[in-house]
Design brief:
Largest sheet: none
Helix content: 55-70%
Order of helices and strands: HHHHHH
Distance between the termini: 48 Å
Strand content: under 5%
Radius of gyration: 15 Å
Shape: globular
Number of helices: 6
Number of strands: 0
Length: 98
């Protein structure tokens, strides 16, 4: 495994990108995950580490790996294929329901 370095600022930027891509506001995902919004915003402002529990919850919520959140890499070679399949299943479900 390569030496990966955790950069707090890059972590928060990745999280911001994920929330923007999915059109989910920070307040919404904080509430959904049971995080205190103000405490979470203070972590972002100070570029401090999220707790391990927060990290795992965020990864699950945004359907990415913890490794991706921390380091910006994902060693899952099937992630892209999984996303394509999810989109196809969603499209088929919409056609069936109409």
């Amino acid at each position: 495994m390569n030496n990966l370095i955790f950069d707090e600022k890059a972590f928060w930027l990745r999280l911001k990108k994920l929330s923007h891509e999915r059109n989910i506001q920070q307040k919404k995902y904080c509430e959904d995950l049971g995080f205190n919004v103000q405490v979470f915003r203070n972590k972002i402002t100070r570029n401090t580490y999220p707790t391990i529990e927060q990290l795992v919850k965020l990864a699950q919520y945004f359907e990415v790996s913890v490794e991706y959140l921390l380091f910006g890499v994902d060693r899952n070679p099937y992630q892209k294929e999984n996303e394509i399949l999810k989109q196809k299943i969603k499209a088929i479900s919409e056609i069936i329901s109409n």
